[in-house]
Design goal:
5-stranded mixed β-sheet, binds copper (II) ion, 4-stranded antiparallel β-sheet, Immunoglobulin-like, mainly beta
Length: 211
């Protein structure tokens, strides 16, 4: 079944710095969570910021958050909050790693030093999936349950704007936006992505706690 997603992009700048507010819905016109907007500065190859650290927990046999968007150079902690073992791995080109069976804090953080999509999985629980979108820009945001996201404090300049969702089937549409000092424009745009159904988590069984 073909699915699509539409976004209304509201572009406004009250002062020299701009703000982008985005609303994303799915093919049923329902708000779409876990979609990402990235504004890539056209001028700089990479925007350097100080080292950052993010956390992706394993809770109730799921990755939480389901989607993380981080800037290149971010380290991520992967604590297991469940009373059972997880075995977290990625085969993704942007980051390949494996942390074998553990509970509690992971034995090490993982450095995400290349841009791209990193798909997380668990060797024990096939349905577990999580994603890290690694980007070369500090200007990014992820939609919440209402399908809204906001990027603030954008300096004037030119940006490549693109969107991403882990279940899309088409590459994100991009557009170029130029922001001037004291720019008060409003821009609305629409786009389509495709969405697939997530794998279902089976009921918790007593033997899930084995090991
Ligand atoms: Cu697991």
């Amino acid at each position: 079944m073909r699915a699509c997603c539409c976004a209304a992009l509201l572009w406004s700048t009250a002062t020299a710095a701009a703000v982008v507010e985005v609303s994303i819905v799915d093919q049923g016109n329902k708000p779409l969570a876990d979609a990402v907007i990235v504004l890539q500065p056209a001028a700089a190859s990479r925007v350097r910021t100080k080292a950052q650290r993010a956390v992706i927990e394993q809770i109730d046999r799921e990755f939480n958050p389901f989607v993380s968007v981080v800037q290149t150079g971010t380290t991520v902690a992967l604590p297991n909050r469940d009373p059972l073992l997880h075995h977290v791995f990625s085969f993704s080109k942007a980051k390949t790693f494996e942390i074998k069976l553990y509970r509690g804090e992971a034995p090490r953080d993982v450095l995400f030093d290349e841009p791209g999509v990193v798909a997380l999985g668990c060797n024990i629980h096939d349905w577990m999936e999580g994603y890290v979108l690694v980007v070369d820009s500090p200007y990014h945001a992820k939609t919440g349950s209402q399908g809204n996201a906001r990027v603030a404090n954008l300096p004037a300049g030119e940006y490549q704007v693109w969107f991403w969702h882990p279940h899309q089937r088409k590459p994100p549409q991009q557009q170029t936006l130029r922001v001037l000092q004291n720019d008060k424009r409003q821009l609305t745009t629409r786009f389509e992505i495709e969405k697939r159904t997530r794998r279902e988590k089976p009921p918790l069984q007593a033997d899930n706690y084995a090991g």
